[in-house]
């Protein structure tokens, strides 16, 4: 499973949206290509896709159908498969409360566009959907609609929220929102949320299976563990690249930048079969290869960019990595580039 620095969605979400667009009479594959999504990517179920690509595909669907509520309607067209392994897990929970707990715990397996938070106000419960400023309204409407639609599909007795609130203005006739949600819908509110009756958490689901639920939960924990490992290495590499021109960073500084304790950072790197020292060397090696392709940078410049205090130290390290000096490596790269251009 690979990760990206920006918010992402799982390929299962992309494929589900494409299926929905096909049912609207659109050429979903053509729209996906226009949104920057390759065919090969769509068949890798473990792949995660940058959220802007998903948002572009949604926007293209809205434009081609002239339906500003496409995101809302997609959210209401409940198909747990769109959430991959998380959808299977939620479907076999005992009740709504358990499903919401698992959803909050494993949300990152599906998307990091937003995060749901359950807030108990005593007389009612609120499901608050938290997103970054600038998140497209269609994605927010889809998320809240999906929560409601899952509750109506999965519970023994279909449930309806008390009230739905959106921070944005209505994208179409507000009456259409109320038809789809089955309750009052308010706009330009302080938060994106819907309100529920307090007893809803104990409401049983239609297909509880404790054995299957436990097995799927174990699988979800393993996948999330892999995701977090990849994520910490990617975030650390990105931070290294920013900090190296100012010198070799310390473990304590890296941990603070990643909002971790030094011990936790070391443990997560160890679990990913790496270490702070190994990660630093790996980033330096990759950056050195990249910089040596840039003829405008001298060998001394590159040494500074990689955090070496002396050019000779960079040359010794590079020779350990590649068996040749940086200058010899650059000549080799330059020769191969000229040959390729002539061909």
Strand-helix topology:
Layout: E1 8-10, H1 11-23, H2 28-34, H3 39-42, E2 48-50, H4 51-65, H5 70-76, H6 84-91, H7 96-106, E3 114-120, E4 125-131, H8 137-154, E5 163-165, H9 174-181, E6 184-186, E7 193-196, H10 210-243, H11 251-257, H12 262-271, H13 276-291, H14 299-305, H15 311-322, H16 326-342
Parallel strand pairs: 5-6
Antiparallel strand pairs: 1-2, 3-4, 4-7, 5-7
Helix pairs in contact: 1-4, 2-4, 5-8, 6-7, 6-10, 10-12, 10-13, 14-15
What does this structure look like?
The chain is of the alpha+beta class. The protein folds into 2 domains: 8-208, Alpha-Beta Complex (H-NOX domain), CATH 3.90.1520.10; 213-342, Orthogonal Bundle (Arc Repressor Mutant, subunit A). The protein has 16 helices and 7 strands. The protein has helices at residues 11-23, 28-34, 39-42, 51-65, 70-76, 84-91, 96-106, 137-154, 174-181, 210-243, 251-257, 262-271, 276-291, 299-305, 311-322, 326-342; strands at residues 8-10, 48-50, 114-120, 125-131, 163-165, 184-186, 193-196. The protein has a 5-stranded mixed beta sheet with strand order 3-4-7-5-6. Strands 1-2 form a two-stranded antiparallel ribbon. Helix 5 runs parallel beside helix 8 (137-154) and helix 10 packs across helix 13 (276-291). The protein is elongated, with a radius of gyration of 25 Å. Mean pLDDT is 87; it is low at 1-5.
Distance between the termini: 37 Å
Structural shape: elongated
Order of helices and strands: EHHHEHHHHEEHEHEEHHHHHHH
Strand order of the largest sheet: 3-4-7-5-6
What share of residues are in beta strands? 5-15%
What is the overall number of helices?
A: 16
The CATH homologous superfamily of the largest domain is named H-NOX domain
* Low-pLDDT residue spans: 1-5
CA-atom Rg in angstroms? 25 Å
Which range best describes the helical content: under 10%, 10-25%, 25-40%, 40-55%, 55-70% or over 70%?
Answer: 55-70%
What is the CATH topology assignment of the largest domain? H-NOX domain
